[in-house]
Design brief:
Blueprint (H helix, E strand, L loop, with lengths): L3 E5 L2 E4 L3 H5 L1 H31 L3 H26 L4 H24 L5 H29 L5 H29 L2 H19 L18 H13 L2 H32 L4 H23 L7 H19 L5 H29 L5 H13 L2 H15 L1 H19 L3 H4 L3
Antiparallel strand pairs: 1-2
Helix pairs in contact: 2-6, 2-7, 3-5, 3-8, 3-13, 3-14, 4-5, 4-7, 5-13, 6-10, 6-12, 8-13, 9-13, 9-14, 9-15, 10-12, 11-12, 11-15, 14-15
Length: about 425
C-alpha cells in the first residue's frame, strides 16, 4: 500500500515526493541535475549517429568513447581528494561552465562544417575530464542533501525524473537528427549545463566541507585513503572490484554495439533508434517508483545483484531480437535491472560512508567502474570487427550473467540487508 506523509495541514502526499516539499536544497540539486541529464540524453543519441555517419566502423565509436573515458579515469584518484577538501558546489559549477562552453563549441563547429573526428576527440576529452571532477562532487552532495529521513524517496525521485528525461531525450535526439541538425543537440545540452550552474549558485552552504584535522598527510596517503575506507567493508570492495571488470562487457554492449545493431545491422531509422533506447528509461522509471515507495528494503544484496543478472539476460536476448517492439521490451528489462542495483548501491554508500570521506570513496567507486572502460570500448570494437557484432553481444552479455551468479555465492553479498 502506498505510504503517505503529511506536509501541510491535513493534506497528504505519496512518500516518494516528500523531498520536494521538505528540502529546498533537494529542489535545486534535483532541477539542475535533471535538466543537465536531459541534455546529455540528447547528445548520447546524437554522438554515435554523428560518428557512424562519418564512418560506419564500431572501432571509431570505440575510439571516441575512449577519448571521453580516459581523462575521466586519470583524474578520479585526484578529484576525490579535491572534493573532500574544497566546496563541492563550487567544484560542480566549474565543471558545468566548462561543459557548457565545450558543448557550444561542438554546435558552432558543426553548424559551420568545421567539425572533424579529431576536433571531436579533443572536445570529448575535455568533457570527460570535467565529468571526472563533477561526479564525485555530485555524489558527495547527494549524501549531504539526501538526509536519512528522505534518503530512499530522494534517491528514487531523483532517478525517476532523470529517467523520464532519459525517456524523452533519445526521442528528441532522434527527431533533431532527422529534421534539424545534430549539432543543435549539443547546443541544447550546453544550455542545460548553464541551468545546472545557476541552480548550484544556491547550494554553496551545502557544498561546504567539514574542517578536517590539521595533521599533514602525504599525497600518496591521501590518494590511498579512499581504498583504506572501502576495504573495511566487504559489500563495498567486492562490488567495486566486480564492476571494474563486468562494466567492460556492459558498457561495450550498450554504448558501442546496441547503436550499431539498430542503425547498421537492422537499418532502422534514427527516430526508431531513439524510441528503442528510451525503453531502458521506461524500465528504470518503474524500478525507481517501486523502490521509492518504502523507507526500508530487506534482502538488498539479492535484489541488487538479481537486477544485474536480469539486465545481462535481457542483453543476451537482444542478440536474437529483430523487431522494434521486442527490442523496446528487452531494453526496458535491462533498464529496470540496472536501476535496482544502482539505487541499492547509492543508498548503501550514503549509509556506510561518512560525509567528510565521501568524495574519496565516490572517486574510488567511479575509478573502479570506469578504469577499464577505455580498454573495453576498444576491445568491443575489435571483437565486433573480428567475430561479428551479434556474436560479441551474446558473449559479453553471457559473461555478465555468469559472473553475477558467482558473486551471489559470497555470503556478505548475498546476506547484505
Amino acid at each position: 500500500m502506498m505510504n503517505l506523509v503529511n506536509i501541510k495541514g491535513n493534506k497528504r502526499y505519496p512518500e516518494i515526493i516528500e523531498p520536494i516539499f521538505t528540502s529546498k536544497a533537494f529542489r535545486f540539486i534535483w532541477i539542475g541535475n535533471s535538466l543537465s541529464t536531459f541534455g546529455t540524453a540528447i547528445t548520447n543519441i546524437i554522438l554515435p549517429l554523428l560518428v557512424y555517419n562519418l564512418t560506419r566502423s564500431p572501432m571509431e565509436m570505440g575510439v571516441i568513447m575512449t577519448a571521453y573515458m580516459l581523462p575521466e579515469v586519470l583524474i578520479l584518484p585526484i578529484s576525490g581528494i579535491i572534493v573532500d577538501k574544497f566546496n563541492r558546489a563550487k567544484i560542480m559549477r566549474l565543471a558545468d561552465i566548462t561543459r557548457f562552453i565545450s558543448s557550444m563549441c561542438v554546435m558552432f563547429l558543426g553548424l559551420t562544417n568545421h567539425l572533424s573526428i579529431n576536433i571531436l576527440i579533443i572536445i570529448m576529452m575535455i568533457m570527460g575530464l570535467m565529468s571526472g571532477v563533477f561526479q564525485p562532487a555530485f555524489s558527495a552532495m547527494r549524501a549531504t542533501v539526501f538526509l536519512p529521513t528522505i534518503r530512499n524517496s530522494a534517491n528514487a525521485l531523483n532517478q525517476i525524473t532523470v529517467e523520464l528525461l532519459n525517456l524523452l531525450g533519445p526521442s528528441v535526439g532522434g527527431l533533431i537528427v532527422s529534421f534539424m541538425s545534430a549539432p543543435i543537440g549539443f547546443g541544447i545540452d550546453g544550455v542545460t549545463y548553464l541551468i545546472s550552474f545557476i541552480c548550484l549558485l544556491f547550494l554553496t552552504n551545502e557544498g561546504t566541507v567539514k574542517k578536517q584535522s590539521l595533521q599533514k598527510t602525504s599525497f600518496l596517503k591521501e590518494c590511498l585513503s579512499g581504498i583504506y575506507i572501502v576495504q573495511r567493508n566487504t559489500w563495498l570492495w567486492v562490488t567495486i572490484v566486480f564492476f571494474s571488470f563486468v562494466n567492460i562487457a556492459i558498457s561495450g554492449v550498450v554504448t558501442v554495439l546496441i547503436p550499431w545493431l539498430i542503425k547498421v545491422h537492422e537499418h532502422l531509422p534514427a527516430y526508431t533508434f531513439g524510441i528503442i533506447m528510451s525503453g531502458s528509461a521506461i524500465g528504470s522509471i518503474g524500478a525507481s517508483f517501486i523502490f521509492g515507495m518504502r523507507k526500508k528494503w530487506h534482502f538488498r544484496g539479492l535484489i541488487a545483484y538479481g537486477g544485474v543478472a536480469l539486465a545481462g539476460f535481457s542483453l543476451i536476448l537482444i542478440s536474437f531480437a529483430h523487431y522494434s517492439g521486442l527490442l523496446i521490451l528487452l531494453m526496458s528489462l535491462e533498464g529496470a535491472g540496472f536501476m535496482l542495483f544502482g539505487l541499492i548501491w547509492e543508498t548503501s554508500l550514503q549509509e556506510l560512508v561518512s560525509q567528510d570521506e565521501f568524495g574519496r570513496v565516490a572517486s574510488i567507486d567511479m575509478l573502479g567502474s570506469f578504469a577499464l572502460l577505455p580498454f573495453g570500448y576498444l576491445l568491443t570494437g575489435w571483437l565486433a570487427n573480428s567475430i561479428g557484432g551479434i556474436t560479441t553481444i551474446f558473449i559479453l552479455s553471457s559473461i555478465v550473467v555468469i559472473a553475477t551468479l558467482f558473486i551471489i555465492l559470497i555470503p556478505e553479498i548475498r546476506k547484505f540487508d
